[in-house]
Predict the structure.
Amino acid sequence: MKASIGCITMIREDAECLVYFLPHNIAVKVVKGSTILEAALRTGIGIRSVCGGKGLCGKCKVIVKRGRVETRRSDLLKREEAEKGYVLACLAKIVENIEVEIPIESQMGKPKLQSSVLLPSIKPKPLVRQIVLTPRDFSTTLLAYTLGSGILEKFSEIERRGVQRILAVLNDVKKRIIDVSESEKGLYGLAVDIGTTKVAAALVNIAEGRVLDTASEFNKQLIYGEDIVSRIRFVLDRRDGLKEIQRAAVETINTVIGTLCKRNKISREDIYMITVAGNTVMTYLFVGLDPYPLIKSFKERVDLPRTPYWLEARDVGVSVNRSADVYVLPCAGRFLGGDVIGDIITAGLNFSPEPALLIDIGTNSEVVIGCRDWFLGATAPAGPAFEGWGLTHGVRAVAGAIESVIIDSKTCRAIYKTVDNAKPIGICGSGYIDLLAQLFVSGLVDLFGKFYKDCGCPYIRRGERGYEYVVVPAEESAIGRDIIVTEEDLYNIIDSKSSVCSAISVLMKKMLLTVNDIKRVYVCGAFGSYLNLNSAMTIGMIPEFTSASVEYVGNGSLGGAILTLLSEDYRVEAERVAKLLAPIELLLDPDFMEEYQAGFMLPGKKELFPTWRDASRGIKPWKPLS
């Protein structure tokens, strides 16, 4: 129950301690011994928790302004932070009434809208359609179609009133009558991309065959961990963990649906079809399948069904028409899900006459090489560094995140751009890739990402945890502290980029391809839309494809959901691709470790960087102008 007291929102429950959150002006009563993170979750306040509340990431820093908590010491807090009252929200147990401030860098923020996608032209052949029937036609149709919830009662009422023109919504694939009415209604569908971090959706006018609007929200599963392994562990450790984490995904989808319906002035009841794409773990958690088989042994290959899932919206809890169907794109392996299938059919790799490369960079970066008759795919265990985990000032792409960087060659000062041009709060993935590339070509770090400590750069200094580079001085930042990058941060970025490049290299080796054989590169995913490919090549994340053209696809996972919603042909094609895609599990591949380790010397192997590797050896340490 919620009640307002002045400008404070109070959530009343039987409990012992009161927690007051700033700057949200929200208070909640919780059981003594609850953590600050748990208290925040009860109110809906978003606090970053990359590790799922295990005290491992240090992203849930909050300040206890008043009152006392019980917590244990963490090396993730600097000495001056501890002196100012900072604690990790996941470790701090509430023992009395407290007032807590959530600093801006620990707040979830609003996600940067990343739902744009370059779609191919299609001839609409949607999964659902609306037709006009007479009562006699309807009775005949009943012989071939099953009925959705409450349809027979609605038809009987319409027939009783003597109506001779009945509008029926049919799903021809499932042979189901979804709805009947006597007046014209809208015919809408929803395409959904369930990402590990964000959920993006497109509202589609099925009758007209066009996308009306898109929206996205942070996946509410983030509170259980920002990586898929943390979420699987949550499911396995909690009795109702699977139901809880499934509900979080559904609640996120319902929030996005509410936004789209309100903006476009339509009723949820007029949404008759939903298509969903996501990686294999997100697919399992949404459908409600036990994810344990996906991780029970990384030393053995796992074969999964390569068929799509059909659900009813009412059974899943999605707030649309009760009889609406949900189609979930098929997965091709435990690390290659419906999101990759969506990437492939959106990019058109499945129609390519010659081998091409498709990459979708993120926490789990997917790589596919193939053409219309064969596909080889792998997922690079890049880790969540591109989402900010393991990095001193790493943040997601929210307002204030540094997304691009150039270093002035004369002063070695960083010139940066932030999301929404807001004051900087940290650095997101694309910003870190730019930063490492700029530090390398400017002669501020060596081939291993170590700072040239004696080069005379005024922004390189010794910090608490070794040498660091000041990207933003405290007076320019929104957090009141210097925003820095450390050698450990650079190591983590090099680790992640090596994982991505090694995946590409392993697949090329399998097919006896060189960098000159790849003529087209498709860059998919929200992250890829903001990635500077020159920077990615400079640090050795992507090989030096000198003769390849590059096409930015955008959110191919969402694109695949849109295409299968609007076209029966694309649905069939998605299922064909899922059966053809051969997954290569890198951790079981004998070539992976060699390729992976080679990437730790920037940029990487000469075979992958035929001109840049030699050219980079000529970079001299930076020196101040005399």
